[in-house]
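Example record for the data management plan.
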Amino acid sequence: MACLLLNAPLAAVAATCGDDASGFMRWRQEFAVEAAAAGVGQAGMQALANTTYATRTISADRNQRSFSYSLEEFMRIRGAETIVRQARQRIAANAEFYGSLERAFGVPAAVLVAIHGMETGFGNFLGDANVVSAIATLAYDCRRSAFFSEHALAALLLVDRGVISSASIGAMHGELGHTQFLPGNVLRYGIDGNGDGRLDMNNLTDAMASTANFLRQNGWRPNRGYQEGQRNFSAIQAWNAAPVYQRAIAIMARQIEGSP
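Corresponding structural encoding:
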C-alpha cells in the first residue's frame, strides 16, 4: 500500500474573509492568487473559478448541536447500538480484509469499523454537497477561515491530481468518502489500498487503509489500549476534536470486540 499524496505544500492564505455571500466573489479572486503561489495548476484553478457560495454548508456549520450532548445522548442519537451490531457482522463477513489492515497498520478492525459506522453509516450516505464549493465557502467564512483555507488549497491540489473533480460530492463540510476525510488529510494520509493506482476515498479499501494510516501516523501503536487514558486514545483524539465523539468511538470499538 503506497501513499500517493503526502505533505503537499499548503501556503498561508490572506484572502479577505466574510460573513455572508456578498464578498465571496472577491475572496475567490484573491484566493486564486494564493492558490497559484501554492502550486495549484490549471485544473484546480478552474475548479476554484466554478465554485459557488454554499448556503447549506454555512447553515450546517452554524447549527452543529450533537457534539454538545451528553455521551449517553450522543450515542443514542447516533445509533451506537446499531453501529455495534452491524460492525460485528461486517467484520465477521470480511475477516481477512480487516485482518490485513491490522497486520499492515496495527489498528484493530473494531476501531476502523466504529469510525466507518459513525461517519457514514458504513457508506450508506457519503454526502450530497459539492466538495470544492463547500470547502471554498468555509475557507471564505470568517468563523474558521484559517483552518479551512489549507483544506481548500488541498482540494484544488486533489483536483489537479485527478483524485477529485470540480463536480465531486461529499459531506456538508467538504469531507470525502466512507470515513469523511477533509481534503488536507487526503493529501497527507491517503492510501491506494486496493493497488489500482488511483486514490479514491469512495472506494472502501482505499478509505479503510487511509483511515488506518491516519491513526498510525498520529501515534497509534499495536497492542496498546485505546480507551480514554490509554496510549492509543490520543490517535482517536486526532481523528475528531469533539470529546464526546472520541469517547463514543472508543466505547463502541470495545463493545464491537465483545466487551461491555
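Summary line stored alongside the record: Residues 1-13 have pLDDT under 50 and may be disordered.
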